[in-house]
Amino acid sequence: MLQTSNYSLVLSLQLVLLLYDLLVNAFSELLRSAPVVQLVLFIIQDIAILFNVIIIFLMFFNTFVFQAGLINLLFRKFKGTIILTAFYLSLSIPLHVWVLNLRWTDSKHYVWTDGLQTLFVFQRLGKARVSPPPPQILHPGPSCCSVLAPPSLSSFPSLRIPPCRPRLSIWLSHRSAL
């Protein structure tokens, strides 16, 4: 199981992969004259997107919500992130193949067709909406257990969920302990 101290490491890894993806998207056109380098960057970019998806699902599997059997709740909450990531990956691979097919033989000329421009715009729009899941859902604290515990959970007597306290009362109890 993923420990609390490792969440920042995993989140940092996700952000590094997203930063690499952003940098390749921003500067790959500058390497138009070196198609082999562009090919290697695109392959690493697609692998980084796959690693990001794997990390998201591994973080799902390490939540208490998943271990309690409420998988549907997790997927309903993160359905947009999962769909947009799959959409982005499914548009990135054809875009990379198309760009390299057009520019492989004649990399000195700037080739940009209407279909390539359309695919480019849709791929970039998909990227603008993909983000890693918020860490407060992946590591639930006492203030968010009411969101994660639906009322139907009372039918499971063996599953004990701690009662929720508002943030103000938690702050006051810590302040009075000092």
UniProtKB/TrEMBL annotation:
Membrane topology: Multi-pass membrane protein
Name assigned to this protein: Transmembrane protein 138
Keyword Transmembrane assigned: yes
Cellular location(s): Cell projection, Cilium; Vacuole membrane
Family matches, as Pfam families: TMEM138
Transmembrane intervals: 6-27, 39-61, 81-100
UniProt record similarity statement: Belongs to the TMEM138 family.
GO biological process, one term: cell projection organization
Highest taxon of the lineage: Eukaryota
GO CC entries: cilium; vacuolar membrane
Keywords: Cell projection, Cilium, Cilium biogenesis/degradation, Glycoprotein, Membrane, Transmembrane, Transmembrane helix, Vacuole
Record keyword Lyase present: no
Biological function: Required for ciliogenesis.
Source organism of this protein record: Monodelphis domestica (Gray short-tailed opossum)
